Here is the input.
Amino acid sequence: MHFVVCIKQVPATTSVQIDPKTGTLKREGVESIINPFDEYAIEEGIRLKERLGGKTTVITMGPPQAEQALREALSRGCDDAILLTDKAFAGADTWATAYTLSCAIKMLPDPFDLIICGKQASDGDTAQVGPSLAEMLDIPHVAYVRKISEIRPGYIKVERMLEDGVDVLEMSLPALITVVKEINTPRLPSLKGVLAARKKQILHWNKETIKAEEDKIGLTGSPTQVKKIFYPPPREAGERISGSTPKEIAEKLVKKLSEIGLLR
Amino acid sequence: MSRIEIIINKCTGCGVCIKSCPYGAITLVDSPHTLESGRTVKQVAVIDLNKCTYCGACVEACRYKAILLQKEEVYYDFKDYKNIWIYAEQRRSEIAPVVFELIAKGKELAEKLNCKVCSVLLGNKIKSLANELIYYGSDVVYVVDDPVLEEFLDEPYAEVLAWLIKEEKPEILLMGATNIGRSFASRVAAKVRTGLTADCTGLDVDLETRNLLQTRPAFGGNIMATILTPKHRPQMATVRHKVFKALPKDTTRRGEIIEKHFDFSKVKIRTKFLEFIKDTTAKVNLAEADIIVSGGRGLGGPEGFKLLEELADLLGGAVGASRAAVDAGWIPYSHQVGQTGRTVAPKLYIACGISGQIQHLVGMSSSEVIVAINKDPEAPMMKIATYSIEGDLYEIVPEIIKAVKAYKGIN
Here is the structure.
């Protein structure tokens, strides 16, 4: 079977700064990592291949330095890696990103069985690209998958995590899932893996390679636009409750909470 | 304009495309012709352009590549787009509480835009819920009641909602940022080729452009962004729960209920629901709880959660946890609050032994009142708390339990 994992390279920290002059995010000097949620997608893609045979292809869209994320995925055991990189892809929102990925996946020489994405990226936090990609490829999807209970050619059974429990669902393949961290524990790359990954070729595809329509990629192809970014207003500092004994402190607190109507 | 045509010398008249067309726009007519291969066939497919939506289903179905589709991006005249829609998410006939909050916010925006707020109710045997949506402020409720919609599945739900959008042309569509809402909305937005903004915490409108100003946290809550969808309609957003306040239920409110029927026979449904397993470890749904008593590394072990559970039970609340406590195996993941767990916004959040890493804070900092109990007065949680208590939680919490019991008159 052929598994495709879609990943994103993100800043290693979420504490990014806004450039006061331009009002945009300062990206220079911030270390990049594989989106933490995508680590589970990579691991699942590798485990499935190891169990069922076949291969795992990893894809990302990003600047040339995103090759580093793909190299790491290769070192863990992915077989092929494709970097979608083109100046015209820059500034894509979730719609344009999903469209770009869909064009690339349609160009894969081998038909795929299952696409695996992390549930969301740690920078944008949208959780939108996976399901949108499924729609654009006209395949079914299940988001927030915590377990693949059964898989064979043409069939998959999964558990979808919801706020109050779990749905058990089945789909025909090809299909797409987005996974949550419960699904597995990602492995670290082995030395052998790292050495093997160094020798592997990472394909670079641009907008011509994937036959993308110009008006659906990058900033111009994005239906949403960022109007402004700003820091959230800080929460006001509160009140310190103190007393000579824990009993006194607890009673003061309960009195305050009851006064504002929180204890009924 | 989009264009579609049959390439006659490739069409064998096999008729596969007829079955694939969701809109019944294709017929076969007698028209003997010769194929590229030299073979002569009797019939050819004809597309009725009055019925065709250029969806491309036939292009995919045709084995002979005999249908040519050129899609052109059309920016609709926005004048056709009116009203604010709220997706009335329901499961097993229970409407998600966020829906009522969105109706209230929708109503406020509708007054500014001088339009109606409409709810969209999809499901099986759910008609009776429509009045409920009116009592909470909807002017109109669109209902699609069909056995196919018994359980939530992304495919049929997305098909029917995308169809309704094309039929009725709403200007704005709001959905709850629940697991279902975020997955479903993404599929719908991809289908109708419009912008979707995730997990909004602020909404307003620009009266001149009628653009929805969608404000949301990014980078784990470190940055806020205001997003527009200037060139596409409807403007879609998923919205975090408990950000807006529902209107009080008013059974004298009147509204219009419009039943719509969708033909599911042509829709591909490749997902099947098997069963739902309820999470029985949580007595109160964490995301919906008004009061949450939460524990972190400072508990020192799983037994601490017994104490927190006692307080939570007493207050009618739920038990939450930081990632550190979950990773230590003291409590199941379903209790985790924060970036990799649930986002909560209760009226009261009591953080016991939680230092307050940013990843935790983003999941709970919109709580109305925060109480922090920590040995370390410099812990970030202590600095954002409404009430902070420096001390040993194992000394303080039992006293709080006693004081609450005394207040409530329980022995």
Chain A touches chain B through 87 residues (CB under 8 Å). The domain at 2-216 of chain A is CATH 3.40.50.620 (Rossmann fold). Chain A has one domain: 2-216. DSSP finds six helices and 13 strands in chain A.
